[in-house]
Amino acid sequence: MESSYNVLEAKNAKEALEILNNENVDLAILDINLGENEQNGITLGQQIKDKYAIPFIYLTAFENAEIISQAISTAPYSYLTKPPKKSDLIASIEIAIRHSGKLETPKILVKDGTYNISLSVEDINYIESDGNYLLYHTDEKIYKTRSTIKKVAEELGENGFVQIHRAYIVNKNKIDKFSNKSVIIRNITIPVSYNYSENIYTNAIS
């Protein structure tokens, strides 16, 4: 089970924040002591809770009641002391990820300016082909990534999307109204082509 984990290591809080800003992270394991003159793991845990909303676990040598109380106030998913039993660590990781819902929401890699981000598919209203690029329309903004409709359709699989045009894939859960000629999402009218008109009736209400 543990062999499926992709582990990214950070030497200090600065490196940890760089990873969080640039990678898709499902869980963080934090030491409380990050070295002299370094931000400690508890304040880093609070930042992760407030800004990144991912589960985190403390793995530390500290057993002091005051330190433990401070750590618990940041709402970690577990607090383990070194050296942990391998089975305890794996169990804590699995529980944290599953209870946080990170395994339940599929994500897709898109561009946000010069950065890559992992976008939850449930946030996508529809996807539009634009030459060699795809435009991912969400309530907040539009993300642009080099790809094709065919490729993204394969990536999305059965995650609640339906192709209605050679240039459009829509999120079934975001459809407000539809006919055999168009779909309306967030007051945006999206064309339905003849070749895909059957898709809208067989898939949009399923």
TrEMBL record:
Q: What is the organism of origin for this protein?
A: Pedobacter flavus
Q: Which UniProt keywords apply?
A: Phosphoprotein
> What Gene3D superfamilies does the record tag this protein with?
3.40.50.2300, LytTr DNA-binding domain
The keyword Signal is annotated on this UniProt entry: no
Write down which residues bear the modification named 4-aspartylphosphate. Answer: D31
All copies of the Response regulatory domain together span: 1-97
Q: Which SUPFAM superfamilies match?
A: CheY-like
InterPro entries associated with the record: CheY-like_superfamily, LytR-like, LytTR_DNA-bd_dom, Sig_transdc_resp-reg_receiver
What protein am I looking at?
Response regulator transcription factor
Q: Which SMART domains match?
A: LytTR, REC
